Amino acid sequence: MLLKRLPDAVDANPAKVAVGIVKIILQIKDVRLYFGHRRLTNSGCQEVKGNIDAVDQRIISTVDQLRAIEDARHGWKPNSDKELRAVKSFESTLIKEYGNLIKLKEQSIMRKIAAHEESKGEIADIFQRINQAREQLVRTLLRHLKPAHSADHKYELEGKNQSLRRSVCTPGTRVRIRDDITRWANDTSSESSSVYWLVGQAGSGKTTIAYTIARRFEFAGDADDKIVLGGNFFCSRQMKETRSVTRIVRTIAYHLARRCKAFADSLDGTDFDIIHQGVRAQLQKLLIEPWRRVQSAEATQMPHFLVIIDALDEIDGEGGSVFLRDLLDSINKYGLRGLKFFATSRPDPGLVEHLESFPNKQFYHLQQVPMEEAEADITAYLNAELPNLQGTQELKSLVGQAAGLFIYAATVAKYLGKCSLPEQLGRISRLPPSGIPQSRKDTSLLDILYLQVLQDAFADFEDVDIDFDRRLKIMHAFLCSAEPIPINIVAKLLFPPEDPDFTETISHVLASLHAVLYTQNHMVLSYHKSFTDFMFDQNRAKCFWCNTRQFHLLLSNSCFRVMDIGLKFNIANIESSFILDQDNPALPAAIKKNIPPVLRYSCFNWGYHLANTDSRKLVDTLSRFLKLPVLFWVEAMNLVGSRGLCERMLRSAHMFGAALSTPHLYISSLATWHPRSVLSQGWNIHFPGIPNFVHASEGRSTLMTITIGSDVNAVAISSDNKHIVSGSRDHTIRVWDASTGEELKVLKGHSSSVSSVAFSSDNNDNKWIVSGSYDKTVRVWDASMGEESKALEGHNSLVSTFTFSSDNKQIVSSLYDETVQVSASTARHASFQYVRQKSKQPSTHTGWLLSTGSDFHYLMFVPLAANLPDPSNILTIPQSRVSSVDFTSSSLGPEWSNCFSYMC
Length: 904
Known about the structure:
6 domains; 5-stranded parallel sheet; globular; WD40_repeat_dom_sf
């Protein structure tokens, strides 16, 4: 009875649950293999074999996935609440399905389970649910790679099932080059090159070919294919993440991990912080090293994956060329057997020369396509796009004018496509005749075509300077935007609120420019980079030229204007500082209402426009912004989940942890800025209600040196400044005269090193001294008598630090197990009790100071930045620059918004 081999009991440890499931699956798999290698002579065994085969695919796909659960889970800590929830969900699924298998075990023996359709279906459903849960967990954990989803050939804008305007090759076109690439991709022999580099001028059709190949190996592969699409990155200057070279490797690694389980397993343990380093480091840690481990483990059944990287010339700066050079060098050095790379870009003579030195290479230049073949392809394309012109002399004329340049044909098709036949013939007649260009690098053909498109679009306004300039500015805005944006955002950026609504005007401009710009899901994009190249070149674009530096200056000012109007303190009207953002159900709706799209764009992109203009012209604007509005900007960015874009500012302001609760960007982060910092002096008068975070004095001369004879771990000074108390490694607490340095008392009672000491601030003679120790106790001493009053035992970890509350009624201690304990201290012989907070305090929230009671509150976050003290040293004078935190004048909880005042 196979299932009776299961453990009869299992605890709630998810790792053990996973191992139990693995054992079940392995046993089922072994039964399948057993029956598969012997002759089955009775109908019962045949039935068992048939039903086992029915779930065999799910069993096999699940067994290897669950093998590593125990090792992966052991000692692992989530990096975020989202990760924690994902892991908990997966564990819950494992436990539930384990229980289902136990029930099946109790119902019958293996033969009966496998023989009945109902039970067989239950087994199949169990594995399907486990697989679905695992895939969801993998997606969550791989998000740390931060891939560029919009670079995927399958990317859809805003989830509306509308992909970017890419299309496959028209049937019957580019047949030879596509067949050549397909043969290369399917050649998995060691003699075949690992890289195929397709080179061509702007508009030669590289992206269309790459897109066709991607779809071919993702969706419509041939039965004889030996390779599948493992990853892809379609570069585009139109989106931030698709023009960033640092996104390429991490995106490919993400795709490959989703496709190849062995690679995903090999990534386990990789420090994903590598994504913040350069391309070469990412190649090494996210691709080369993990894949080489796959090579070692899968020597006999090596998988083969195709990686496509398109339009590297659209990467910012020289990043595309640098990436391709690093990739070529890595492949030449390590081989990476099983991976093949198909890349496209414009010509790069330096890279061509570099590639020529490689012993094994595959290189194709689209300029090598014979003119007759290019013209035949363009004829087929135009016949499909302009059916009204099939067989006409006009179409033959257009083919000749294209001179083998696909972007010319594509632009003409869009220019004429929406017109009736008479309108098409009229537009063709207005196209200036063009001679054959001297070389395919010659842009004169495109220049003539683009100028004609623009002249038609602006024909009605050439004599009206205001209307012409306004429409030209609208077009330039779409070309210079940091990301694709809708019409209403452009209207609000270009025209102040007091101006008329120009939304309809913008729509008319776009309609007239349909040959070069298009709208999809309300976002405006350009069809091809060759048009922006044309528009940004004064010699080519003539009167339509876009002066990018001047226009980015205009957009920078527009962003600051929008932020000046829209940003404010507590923009989302958060009611209390005692809860985290994730626990505030009303917050998403408030964010959507109070941070509209134009404000969101401005917050995200003012830095982009500033970097592309002469920032010296914005000195005054920046100065005003950095005094107070910058804080409101950080608040808004935190609310929309993009505080990482403020990383440098957040690091200098010590705001990382406090970002879990937007009110604490003010209550905690601003409070911990040193009051002498330049930025603090700009905003501090506006925040009278934040906690007083007192920094210890720095750089003062030594007044006295007291030699103790043992390492000193902690020191405190009495409120009247007359006494000093020290805690030492020799287990003692010593009281000293602060004026003379004379030792007054030695307090003994701890059995281990004393880690922290503190005086109460009573105004009578019965002052208390409290000490914490690595012996897991906190002890209260009568300062005047030198006697131990009470030992607070029950701590489950080493005591790190503690302090008295301002009314001396409570002692708050922090432990090395990330807990906070609060004890009463109302009288000399009081019954001391403590409240443990560990069960309430998420482990990922280390650094929070919490209130006590059943309904705990987040009072303050003490940052973990390198140049601020660790919470374990917050209130220890010699180990920290911080001496105390005073909440007496603070506005917290429902009153938190009172911490700010414009009028101070």
